[in-house]
Amino acid sequence: MEIRLLTSAAIAAANDIVMRAYQSPSRLTELERYLRLQPDGWFLAWESGQAVGLAGTIDYGDFAYLGLVSVLPEAQRGGIGRALMRQILAWLAARDCPLVLLDASPVGQPLYQKLGFITTDASVVWGRAAATHPPSAVRPPMGGIHLMEPTDIAEVVAYDRPRFGADRTAALADLLMSHPRRAAFTRDAAGCITGFAIAQPRILGPWLADDVSSAAALLAWAWALDEPPTGMLVPAHNAQAAALLTSAGFAVQRKLAHMRLGTGATRDRTTHYGLASFTLG
Fold first, then answer.
1. Where are the alpha helices (DSSP H) in the chain?
2. Which of 2, 115, 136, 183 lies 20 to 30 Å (CA to CA) from residue 249?
3. Each residue of 125-171: pLDDT tens digit?
């Protein structure tokens, strides 16, 4: 087995691995984004000239998110996932990254535990159900809801950084460029940002808010889009998010273990109503 950096020339093979491993639709657009953001942090495992495994990470400096660890079904249980994990952890250690985060399925969790990861929370996948409806009796924040423009990125990042725990300017700018007029933020009466959200095709996220009224206003805004997102990836510690989504008729689809390896402050995810993805956080 050989592990090489993922390049754009092999991204179709990487997408095939992810689709087959997770039995999911194409993730090509998502993989292209990750490769733009961290071109030196994505790896393919090869056997006999065939790409058989993928894993990668986004290093934010204060911590890294690791995601899309995937192996072709016929090549699983052969140590490929472990080899990819060791490659990424060694790469992050060489960059002095103090903390690695990931969200693990029940299938992957035992491997991560053997590598030293511990569970600190859960990340919950919520989806639309037959009874899903717009949030009711939403009162917009005093400062209103505003569409996010590229000129707003610096102010949004200033809001996001202390709540997310790191600077993700590049990720937010990339998402905004990919989804123009599908990003919004709220302000209070004093003009301060109280939350923001980006409505990707399948999920509402990132979606952060300081209070449930701002979160509800952003959910109502996303619902009114021509093609509203159909799901959210929500930290279990955010009880207000669970209550809001339950009241709007969304349903829990599955739960993943939120795990960490290394040192660093425990992140408060109670203002996180929706992750950008399980790789971007």
1. 11-22, 28-37, 80-94, 109-114, 153-164, 169-178, 212-223, 239-247
2. 183
3. 999 886 667 666 556 676 789 999 999 999 999 999 999 999 999 99
Question: In terms of pTM, does the model score above 0.90?
Answer: yes
14, 3 in Cβ contact below 8 A?
Answer: no
State whether 80 and 201 are in the same domain: no
Domain co-membership, 78 together with 130: no
- The residue type at 108: G
| Residue 246 falls in which region: left (phi positive, over 0), alpha (psi -120 to 50) or beta | alpha
Dihedral (C-alpha) 125, 126, 129, 132: value to the nearest 10 degrees? -170
- Tell me: do 56 and 139 sit in the same domain: no
Q: What is the pLDDT of residues 232-266, one digit of tens each?
A: 999 999 999 999 999 888 999 999 999 999 987 77
Instruction: Return the exposure string of 240-256: e unless at least 16 CB atoms fall within 10 Å of the residue's CB, then b.
Output: ebbebbeebebeeeeeb
Q: State which residues form the domain around 63.
A: 2-97
Q: What is the DSSP letter of 149?
A: -
Classify residue 281: in a domain, yes or no.
Answer: no
Residues 130 and 204 in one domain: yes
